[in-house]
Amino acid sequence: MKRASLKRRRGVRVVDRPLAPLARQFAAFFGVGLLAAVVHYGLLIGLVEAWRIDPVAAALAGYVAGGGASYALNRRFTYRSDRPHAEATWRFALVAGVGFFLTWGFMHAFTRWLGLPYLPAQLVTTGIVLFWSFLAHKLWTFQSSISPRAGRD
Asked: 135 to each of 25, 40, 128, 143, 152, how far by Cα in Å?
């Protein structure tokens, strides 16, 4: 891990913190995730409590509902991606699909096999899928479509 270093820019000492952009990006991802979670949990609770839908099915419906807003907000604010929508949308959908099945698997294990209440189970599941999604979107979905070597010749 790199240490913070001092640099001079226009006569002013500036501390270079290599993890600051990553921290900002994760904070933005977390904020977008909170908005998506409001939709997700709202639908989950509404479907389970008002409609008596199975918690696993309701969790998956909530996951899909939060995904639409998540794509647009993360593309614009979190990753500031220049990858064309034609490339980013299918990648986002694939990462979301893996997250969907992770959600199914963990919710199934926690509620059916371990007998945990659905809301604590969903909280743990959300944390697991949060880290998976952040890394997958950063390293693949919204990674710049321009080669880092482009324009160096």
From this structure: 11, 21, 11, 11, 28
Q: Where are the domains of the chain?
A: 23-141
**Model confidence pLDDT, tens digit, residues 69-122:** 899 889 999 999 989 999 999 999 999 899 989 999 999 999 999 999 999 999
Closest by CA to 137, choosing from 84, 93, 102, is 93
Query: β-strand 5-9 against 12-16: which pairing, if any?
Result: antiparallel
Single-letter amino acid code for the residue at 13: R
Nearest residue to 109 (alpha-carbon basis) of 97, 125, 96 = 125
**CA pair distance 21, 80, nearest whole angstrom:** 12
Instruction: Report which of residues 2 and 102 the model is more confident about.
Output: 102
Average pLDDT of the chain is 86
H-type alpha helices, the chain: 20-45, 55-73, 85-108, 118-136
Query: What is the structure's pLDDT at 84?
Result: 92
